[in-house]
């Protein structure tokens, strides 16, 4: 089988822990592109966060952002799709989650990921690394304004609880119209129902005429599980969550030990990439 498309998560997978692109990884990506295969980042980041590392990774063309809710070319601004969480669904979830977990805080990412509106206490606890954007650019607002506009991604965090605990609590509520996950960052991530990295990758591949069997995918976090499971050959990096490792066809070295590059180099040596 020839792989025509490589899909990779960024943080914790393609990138080192400090957010950099290892020279070995960049060389492998360049070789894959030279062989004729497409390289598509599939990330929880918004375009603002992708632009920050685009040059280092050689990212050009389409990117699946916001866990697949947004397909965009950050260079040209072309948007293929943007799916949003309905106001009624996010308000129902926010009401129910705040009753179940007092102290939870909310934020809304909008307008192709360029606008970030959040409760003041949410912003107070944020670091740049959390959302790959300067907290000073976040717009403070009350609950009604945060929840009152459809979100590309709706977010919840708690000062004392990790994301996996919020995810478990949110899933127990049974709210319809939402997809719940997290990417290893300290917050719950909410997309429209049915929007996952795997579903978005399948949608893009259909548009490009690329078969599932021709897709190689890499991931590490719970939000990567569907993508790794869907791809013709799904790879978990060594630091991946157990649920990702369970569905992967292969487990490589960690993101700190050039795991993605190691697989690409092996497959390149076997002539596995092409148009």
UniProtKB/TrEMBL annotation:
GO molecular function terms listed in the Swiss-Prot or TrEMBL record: hydrolase activity
Protein name, entry field: Cof-type HAD-IIB family hydrolase
Keywords: Hydrolase
InterPro entries per the UniProt record, alphabetical: Cof, HAD-like_sf, HAD-SF_hydro_IIB, HAD_sf
A Pfam family assignment: Hydrolase_3
